[in-house]
Design brief:
Layout: H1 3-20, E1 31-37, H2 42-56, E2 60-66, H3 72-82, E3 88-92, H4 96-101, H5 111-117, H6 120-125, E4 127-128, E5 131-132, E6 135-140, E7 143-147, H7 160-173, H8 187-190, H9 217-228, H10 242-250, E8 256-259, H11 264-269, E9 274-277, E10 292-300, H12 307-316, H13 320-329, H14 344-353, E11 357-358, H15 365-380, H16 385-397
Parallel strand pairs: 1-2, 1-3, 10-11
Antiparallel strand pairs: 3-10, 4-5, 6-10, 7-8, 7-9
Helix pairs in contact: 2-13, 15-16
């Protein structure tokens, strides 16, 4: 047999074997997608959603790996290039700038379709330099929790001035209890006092890094008001951390507390008869004070061998059925799509979400937290407001 004829025979034989084995069609090959997520609810969601997806797409297996939300940013930079990273991973939207500039994530597939599916604040949160990255898996903000056994709904303050007055009166009449508590050294919450007159961190678009806008006249005046709240809550900042404030509300000694949906189940399990409503308005305003909104993104890794399959699974997580499932499994993390929720307390968060604004995703957010946390604590403890906010702005921008 000459060489040309032998080549033809081998080609036919190879084609026959490929056909008999089902071919190399990517749609039928076994694909294992590794997904990084946190424990405490999101893990169970990925497992159940993965099983549902595999039932519809038998060739795709979803493998959950525990990497906590706060660790994903640094770990993807190490594991991705090493070839041992995920195909899809969860990360907070405010670190999107770091992920994009590091080359760790891929743009959203069919962004117009995804934008039409999810809440506007969520698609905005996952847009960086005009390009959308990832798939918004949930939304969050915080609101005002209140103990119905300590404050009636008719007494709920509409303004921060009313809250301060009510709390002072309550404290005087109820030794050992507090009318109001909040983590005063946490920028996630204290940012609300800088937002009067539409003042926003890094400007209206959240992308103006010429200034943090945290030392603008509106921000300074707002934080001066924040400082006055200590007259009704005379506790050092270090003793008003998140764990302490959550504990005070859960034990029934605090009438009002600012926190998020992650505490819904815990407070219910503690037997607290509570409700949730929008934040009081800032001095001079008539609408609820703006809060940070966070979007949890599921990002397709730039190092994935299966980017199309990963994107398809991420889009599946945005269906109504999956968003309802996630809400149930995560103790109240808000859906990223417009879907009906039956919980009265969830409605309180959704109302606040109407006045929330996405945390900026510029790389400077990496220095924002430590700087603003420190400024908030120092201001609460008595330091000069303008001095602290000037120092905060300088630290964030590396001046």
């Amino acid at each position: 047999m000459n060489k040309k004829l032998m080549a033809v025979v081998l080609l036919v034989a190879t084609c026959f074997m490929v056909f008999a084995a089902g071919g190399k069609d990517a749609g039928s090959d076994k694909v294992v997608l590794t997904v990084w997520e946190s424990t405490g609810g999101p893990d169970e969601f990925i497992k159940q959603a993965g099983a549902a997806y595999t039932a519809k797409n038998p060739n795709v297996e979803i493998k959950f790996v525990n990497v906590e939300l706060g660790d994903a940013i640094t770990q993807i930079a190490l594991d991705g290039p090493a070839g041992v990273g995920p195909d899809l991973f969860a990360a907070p939207h405010d670190r999107l700038g770091t992920l994009v500039t590091g080359g760790h994530v891929l743009p959203t597939v069919n962004p117009d379709k995804i934008k039409a599916t999810v809440l506007g604040a969520c698609s905005q949160a996952l847009t960086y330099n005009g390009v959308m990255y990832g798939y918004p898996i949930s939304a969050e903000t915080y609101a005002l929790f209140y103990n119905k056994d300590l404050i009636s709904e008719s007494e709920l303050p509409k303004t921060w001035e009313e809250l301060a007055a009510w709390a002072a009166d309550f404290n005087a009449k109820n030794p050992g209890k507090y009318g109001f508590v909040m983590d005063v050294g946490n920028a996630y919450y204290t940012i609300i006092f800088t937002t009067a007159n539409n003042n926003r961190l890094f400007g209206a678009s959240g992308t103006d890094t010429s200034s943090s806008y945290l030392n603008s006249p509106d921000a300074v005046n707002g934080m001066k008001f924040f400082k006055t709240l200590k007259s009704g809550l005379d506790v050092p900042a270090d003793d008003l951390n998140t764990a302490t404030c959550d504990g005070a509300f859960a034990s029934g000694i605090a009438a009002m507390h600012i926190t998020g949906p992650w505490n819904l189940k815990g407070f219910a399990d503690a037997g607290i008869n509570y409700g949730v409503t929008a934040l009081p308005s800032l001095p001079g305003d008539t609408t609820p004070a703006p809060s940070f909104s966070g979007t949890r993104g599921m990002y397709v890794s730039a190092y994935s061998d299966y980017p199309e399959e990963a994107a398809a699974f991420a889009e599946f997580l945005l269906t109504d059925e999956m968003q309802q499932l996630r809400y149930e499994l995560t103790n109240g993390a808000l859906p990223s799509i417009d879907t009906q929720l039956s919980s009265e307390n969830a409605i309180g968060f959704l109302k606040q979400l109407d006045y929330a604004f996405p945390m900026p995703s510029v790389p400077e957010m990496g220095t924002f937290w430590e700087a603003m946390n420190a400024a908030s604590k120092n201001i609460w403890n008595g330091s000069d407001v303008k001095t602290e906010l000037d120092a905060c702005d300088a630290a964030i921008l590396g001046k």
